[in-house]
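Record type: ASSEMBLY
Status: queued
Input:
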Amino acid sequence: MRDSLYLAWRYLHYHRAKTLLLVLSLSVFLGLPLVMRAMSAVIQRSLMARAQSTPLLLGKKGSSLDLVVEALYFQPKAIEALTQADVDEIDDTGLAQAIPVRTGLMARQHPVVGTTLDYFSFRGLEIAQGRPLATLGECVVGAKAAKALDLNLGRSILTSPSTLFDLAGVYPLRLRVVGTLKPSYGPDDRAVFVDVKTAWVAEGLGHGHQNLATADGDVVLKRKDGTATANAKLVQFNEITDENVDTFHFHGDPTGYPVSAVIAVPHDDKAGVLLRGRLVNDLARQLLRPAQVVQGLNEQIFRFERVLRIIVWTVGLATALMFVLVMVLSWRLRADELRTMTRLGCSRWKAVQIMGAEVFLMVGASVVLAAFFGLVIAHYGETWLQNLILRGS
Amino acid sequence: MIELRDVRFEYAQGGFCLRVPELSIPAGTRAAAIGPSGSGKTTLLNLISGIERSEAGRVETAAVRIDTLSPSARRSFRITNIGFVFQDFLLLDYLDVLQNILYPYRLHQDLRLDEDARARARRLAANLGIERLLQRCPGELSQGERQRVAIARALITAPKLVLADEPTGNLDPATKLHTLDLLFEQCDALSMTLLMVTHDHGLLDRFEQVVDVSNLGKNPPLGKNPP
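Status: finished
Output:
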């Protein structure tokens, strides 16, 4: 067998280009269904785990899937916002803990999530370095975001401007990193967490500027009845520091400020049922169980996967037939070699063994390659594919 | 060394029949097989080597009744007792010269590829003047060099008999004579019997025995070459 393997190896090595092509084709044939199946299972599991850990989600009426995708997985879907009053209303029922989630802002391709400290304990997120959020302008970053953005304690990150060409629009806010999270292997790893009030400041709903009482006269346009009107020279702060934090303030009624969704954590099952009963006929809002929504999404993925599997097997069959054809043609071209073997004294069985060794080596290499790529894809591709599915959902 | 008596052979598809009433080639002889195309020269080599099996008669090669052996025993006999040289060399382009010479050792468990075999291959290559080509592939060699590699492959197992089927047919005149000299030299040095098919009647005076295959059934088959 050693001699057969040696001759097979030398043949394959001599015809490396052909061998490589066949091995790659076979790897795809062998690897794709396995990778697809494994990935699909992992993704469905991880999507479902996230949804199942979120008992109830309150949002505006509209696509329930978009609401879940944006509030749980932080994929922007431009959902209509609730208000802080809705958060207060859930809290006031005494049936559930209300955790606001404000999404929509980004910081260098990573979602900025405005919430409260309750979110961290609810999700079981632990601080790896630093401390939790304490004041305005601070952020805590997920493990992957910290690595990708090279963010350590004391560094800062700017929110991405949402209106690039609108000079009067909202300017980026510099967020100070006060903590990084331990990996949780979910969407939280990619997020930059801020207090919901900081999110409102970043959106331009609150701001800080020079104290008009002590500012130069040329900054003030007019003073009347204790109210000062400033001109464009007034210095506005784009970073909240210990020195200027007191100058930050909101105008208008804070209960009208937006939150994208509210995670409602009922105190018990009965409280959950009662809460759902109260909101079941609400015309403007929906209180849903994310697990049910994700179950629907998973069923869609499963249906899609079934179709994809048929396509993959068809392509695989074509690849296998092509492989057989190439091998048969190759052996026919090597008829002289086979005849020489026989004439020298080689048995048919030995000749078959040598040819078999070629197939064995190629299939072996393909299996190894498929397994390698499978592992790489399973390791690095899960988040990518999860994002792809959620973005396209 | 080679004894054929009352041999009859016909291919399954018909159309050709070889009859050999009697043929004898003593050990250590340099013999040439001649005859027009289609007269059965290659078939005769196939019968002597056991690649084909006669329908009737007796074929004895190296004191073994090869016509009575099983296919497996004939293969084993062939690889250990007979060396082949072909007109178109039939070297493997994916093996270097050294591995081409050692090729028979890869084909049968009766031959053991050890350091002795490798040393013999190097010695043979040196004797045939191809020792500097051992790491090259056949595609990089001239016709004459390829045929010398093929001769080395035929001799590597130290066979008792060398069957050469027009080994100089593809060579230019100068290379042809040189290759033939080398083949004779090696066969003599190792006391091997040589039976070589050739169309080149100008070479016949270099053989001790000439077998005219077209006359095997008609005239006395065995004849010493006139000096």
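Annotation: The mean pLDDT of chain B is 86.
Annotation: The beta strands of chain B are 2-10, 17-25, 30-34, 56-61, 64-65, 82-86, 161-165, 193-197, 209-212.
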